[in-house]
Design a protein that fits this description.
- Strand 11, helix 10 and strand 12 form a beta-alpha-beta unit.
- Strands 3-4-2-5-1-6-7-8-13 form a 9-stranded mixed β-sheet, with helices on both faces. It has a 4-stranded parallel β-sheet with strand order 10-9-11-12, sandwiched between helices.
- It contains 11 helices and 13 strands.
- The chain folds into 2 domains: 182 residues, 3-Layer(aba) Sandwich (Rossmann fold); 82 residues, Rossmann fold (3-Layer(aba) Sandwich), CATH 3.40.50.
- It is of the alpha/beta class and 331 residues long.
């Protein structure tokens, strides 16, 4: 589903008139959601699996660029610390609940799109029960866990918690679901964060004025160059426009761009429409790696991907934080 317009900005002219009434009616539900989250965090005793657990989470619903960060941290631990590091995801929209290690034999319908995408570049696990999954991973010989999402999930003990913030969307209208995009209050969420990663800007968001722990800045950039073709892009991620803007910034001749809701399950008719649209423009069809993971093998034919990676402006700060979480085993 797409976010309500009033989640994103008070000044959105499309929602200015509807927002006050909508928020008023949704206030009791937001209070209940916030109370439930706070109670779960307070009353749950985390399971310690005796290997480092690094959580990359956020405070809002929707995509903020966590998955590329998760992949980059796993790569860092694997290459620099020589550890068997693996990602752990919930497996959103996948039919399998885990715990299990994702393999090429799985599909996005089995394990979810993000775990399948992460499995293409390293070791990836899923588990709806994070504590059970963490235990299974440790027993299998995994030496470090990078948890994709889970800042509001207290089931697994965390040695290092990052909160990721999209520099443009930030915290939306500042209200809790369903009144706004927040999963909990900003104050409560930041209080449990060891560091914040701001994606897309080197500026410090005003909401972090009292945050005294490390603030890292990162940018999501393409991993290679694009061939000189006209393109039609499509994306079903948290903020599809981020992908479209990145394509333009990379010099792509973007003829058209088609957004879909996050985790959209593409039908054959969707792909037929997109391929016809590209053909009408005499263009190549391109999408994100996450969207590509959700396509059937037959639908993938003729569709290109736009691989990206995250780059930190001060990677030494990330390295230092990881070294502390690994008890200085990372030199």
């Amino acid at each position: 589903m797409r976010e309500p317009h009033f989640w994103s900005a008070d000044l959105d002219p499309r929602s200015r008139e509807a927002a006050p009434l909508s928020r008023f009616l949704l206030t009791p539900f937001a209070m209940l959601y916030g109370w439930t989250t706070a109670r779960r965090l307070k009353t749950t005793t985390p399971t310690n699996v005796d290997i480092p657990v690094i959580c990359v989470g956020n405070l809002t619903a929707g995509g903020v660029g966590k998955s590329p960060i998760v992949g980059q941290i796993r790569k860092h631990l694997t290459e620099v610390a020589d550890l068997r590091a693996a990602t752990l995801s919930r497996g959103y929209k996948g039919r399998l609940k885990g715990p299990l290690k994702v393999t090429p034999a799985h599909s996005a319908q089995d394990v979810g799109d993000e775990p399948l995408m992460l499995a293409a570049s390293g070791e990836s696990w899923i588990g709806a029960d994070r504590a059970a999954a963490g235990t299974a991973m440790a027993e299998d010989g995994v030496e470090a866990i990078i948890m994709d999402d889970g800042h509001q999930n207290p089931r697994l003990h965390k040695d290092l918690s990052f909160v990721v913030i999209d520099a443009k969307a930030r915290f939306g209208n500042g209200h809790i679901i369903p009144k706004g995009p927040l999963r909990e209050t900003i104050e409560a969420g930041l209080a449990r964060a060891d560091a914040v990663i701001v994606v897309g800007s080197n500026d410090k968001p005003v909401e972090l004025s009292k945050f005294t722990r490390p603030i890292l800045h990162a940018h999501i950039q393409p991993t290679g160059s694009l061939a000189a073709h006209p393109y039609v892009a499509f994306a079903g991620i948290g903020r599809p426009e981020k992908m479209f803007d990145s394509l333009k910034a990379a010099g792509a001749d973007l003829c058209d761009a088609v957004p879909y809701p996050d985790h959209h399950e593409y039908s054959h008719s969707d792909i037929k429409y997109l391929k016809k649209l590209a053909a009408d423009h005499g263009a190549k069809l391109i999408t994100t790696e996450k969207d590509y993971a959700r396509l059937s093998l037959s639908d993938r034919e003729g569709i290109l991907t736009f691989p990206v990676e995250v780059r930190f402006t001060q990677p030494e700060i990330l390295h230092s934080l990881l070294a502390t979480a690994l008890k200085d085993n990372l030199k």
